[in-house]
Every structure is written in structure tokens, then in C-alpha cells.
Specification:
Blueprint: E1 2-8, H1 12-23, E2 28-32, H2 37-40, H3 55-68, E3 72-75, E4 78-84, E5 87-92, E6 95-104, E7 125-126, H4 129-132, E8 140-145, H5 150-158, E9 162-167, E10 181-182, E11 187-193, E12 196-201, E13 205-208, E14 210-214, H6 220-223, E15 229-230, E16 233-234, E17 247-249, H7 260-283
Parallel strand pairs: 1-2, 1-6, 2-3, 6-17, 7-14, 8-9, 8-14, 9-10
Antiparallel strand pairs: 4-5, 5-6, 11-12, 12-13, 15-16
Helix pairs in contact: 1-3, 1-7
The protein binds flavin-adenine dinucleotide.
Length: 284
């Protein structure tokens, strides 16, 4: 099924965008993953009409509101957005959703990468077991995991390859398949060597055919590598349009001030711009 718009993020910016998208009668899917900044706010006092509201309560009310308005809401980490001939495919764990336009409302998840990780992406480093796992059938891989889906993804890879698992930070790894060896050392960098891909840790080094880095958050440029980022924020114009045609962005991820009222206002503009874009594309 194809949506008019997929909104990545169900914080204030994404929820607001969804409400306006539905007012414009767009077929709307909202995807969210872990808690965003809003759910961490103990109390918000400067949002009109909702005095003394907690962040969690705000998110609960606005998510209920967007579902009542006819948007679909699903939990799942969006791992990759791929432009495909005028529309977009969104990879969400094991599913792919398609839409004519995208609104990014992912907040400001800061992702600290390993040294050389981004440079070696696609050259032995992957962020997506579902997309690239098959290339490593019968080979050896290392999974650098940081929680979320990383244990599940490592178990999936263990069905195809010999897997070592290196926790990037402390998280529950009790669910790891028995065949997986755990590297109990801090990962620092990735290098390409004659023997294969090398994971350099604090006290040890490990070589494999491929290295998968699986974190619960994805940097905007990993989601959609074509995206222009300026000073750490996704670049948008006054219509909340990014440099990628059909992709809009709103909220904390487009920069200061990091405030709820700004996020909802931008979500509203992004949805109106997406509606305009879809209409124009239909008439072209
Ligand atoms: C402790 C604290 C107190 C605050 N107090 C106030 C206050 O009093 N007043 C005020 O105006 N502001 C306050 N803020 C700031 C406010 O919370 C943010 O400005 C606001 O939440 C931004 O909304 P957002 O929708 O852009 O991002 P967020 O609320 O961070 O939501 C981001 C959403 O994106 C989703 N997401 C991210 N990546 C993916 C992915 N790859 N796939 C699927 N989903 C994804 C997350 O699951 C989440 O749903 C506070 C923030 C904090 C942390």
C-alpha cells in the first residue's frame, strides 16, 4: 500500500504534521521508535492550552488525536529512506513502506559514530542486517550493537553467517543466540585491511568479512544520505523543504530553538508543503 506521506517521528513535530496532513486528506503513516525529547520533559509550562502538562501526557494526547483523525501510527525504527522514481521507500526493520513524500520529525538523537565508520559504509560496513545480510551468507561478521533491535538483528545474521557481537554500550544481551561470540571490549574504530574489515577495540582487534553497526537511533544522513546538513541540523527553507525534492523536515532536527511550540508550528508548515508538493506532482 502506498501512502501520500510518511512521517518519521511522533513527537510534537510529527504529531502536528500528521494532524494537518489528515486535514488535507493525505493518507498518512506516522512511524516512531524510542522516546524522543518530549517524553523526557517532566513538565511543559509554555505550550498554549495545555498548562502543567508532562511531556509523556502531551505525546499520549496528541498521538490519540492523530489516530482519531485517521492517520496510521506504528512503532518501528526507520533505518533507511530510498528515493525511487518520484516516490520513497522506507525500510522499517523487516518491512518496507512507500510514500509520495516524507516528513522527517526525528528530534535530535545525537549519534556518535566509530572512527571511519561512515567513510566505510557500503564498503564492508552496513547499518542494516535485513538489507545486506544475504551478502554475508557463509561468511564472518561482527555486529557492533547498542541496544534496541541490535540483539535481534545479530540473531538474524547468525542464521546466515558466523557472528561476533561487540556491545558499544551496556545493554541486555541475554537474548543473544548461543552461537554468537561476545567481544567484551570497547569498539573504537573500523579499518579496511588485507584480511578483511577490522574492528579496533580498546584492548583487542577483530577481523571479519563485514561489520554491522546497529544502534537504536539513526543519524539523518544515514537515513537519507542525500540530505544536506548545516551545523548539525537538517537544512530546510521557509516551507520546511529539505534539499531533497519531496522530503520535508520539522522540529528539533532542523535547529534552535528546541521548543515544543516551534516544533508543532514547523510540523504544520511541513504538512501543508507536502500536500502542495503532492498536488503539483499529480498535475505534472
Ligand atoms: C528534559 C526536557 C525538558 C524540556 N522542557 C521543555 C519546555 O518546558 N518547553 C518547551 O517548549 N520545550 C521543552 N523541551 C524541548 C521539547 O521537548 C522539544 O523541543 C520537542 O520535543 C521537539 O519535538 P520533536 O517532535 O522535534 O522531537 P522529539 O520530541 O524528540 O521526537 C522525536 C520523535 O522521532 C522518533 N524517531 C527518531 N528517529 C527515528 C527513526 N529513525 N525511526 C522512527 N522514529 C524515529 C522518536 O521515536 C520520537 O517519536 C524539553 C526537552 C527536554 C529533554
Amino acid at each position: 500500500m502506498k501512502y501520500d506521506v510518511i512521517i518519521v517521528g511522533a513527537g510534537p513535530a510529527g504529531c502536528s504534521a500528521a494532524l494537518t496532513a489528515r486535514q488535507r486528506n493525505l493518507k498518512t503513516l506516522v512511524l516512531y521508535n524510542a522516546e524522543g525529547a518530549m517524553e523526557k520533559a517532566h513538565r511543559v509550562d509554555n505550550y498554549p492550552g495545555m498548562p502543567n502538562v508532562s511531556g509523556k501526557e502531551f505525546v499520549k494526547i496528541t498521538r490519540e488525536q492523530l489516530v482519531e483523525a485517521g492517520a496510521e501510527l506504528r512503532k518501528g525504527l526507520v533505518q533507511k529512506i530510498m528515493p525511487v522514481g518520484g516516490s520513497f521507500s522506507c525500510l522499517v526493520e523487516n518491512d518496507i513502506y512507500e510514500a509520495s513524500s516524507i516528513i522527517l520529525a526525528c528530534g535530535t538523537a545525537r549519534v556518535k559514530t566509530l572512527k571511519n565508520e561512515e567513510e566505510l559504509l557500503g564498503q564492508g560496513v552496513s547499518y542494516c542486517a535485513t538489507c545486506d545480510g544475504m551478502f554475508y551468507r557463509g561468511k564472518t561478521v561482527i555486529v557492533v550493537g547498542a541496544g534496541g533491535e541490535s540483539v535481534e538483528e545479530a540473531n538474524y545474521l547468525a542464521e546466515l553467517a558466523t557472528v561476533k557481537y561487540c556491545p558499544e554500550r551496556k545493554h541486555d544481551i541475554s537474548g543473544l543466540n548461543d552461537s554468537i561470540t561476545v567481544i567484551d571490549d570497547k569498539p573504537l574504530s573500523i579499518e579496511k585491511s588485507a584480511e578483511g574489515m577490522k574492528l579496533v577495540c580498546d584492548k583487542s582487534e577483530h577481523v571479519a568479512d563485514g561489520i554491522f553497526v546497529i544502534r537504536p537511533a539513526i543519524a539523518p544522513t544515514q537515513l537519507l544520505p542525500e540530505l544536506e546538513v548545516k551545523d548539525g541540523s537538517v537544512y530546510v527553507d521557509k516551507d520546511m523543504a529539505t534539499n531533497v525534492k519531496g522530503v520535508f523536515a520539522a522540529g528539533d532536527m532542523v535547529g534552535q530553538p528546541l521548543q515544543v511550540a516551534k516544533a508543532t508550528g514547523e510540523g504544520n508548515i511541513a504538512a501543508l508543503s507536502a500536500a502542495k508538493y503532492i498536488k503539483q506532482a499529480e498535475n505534472d
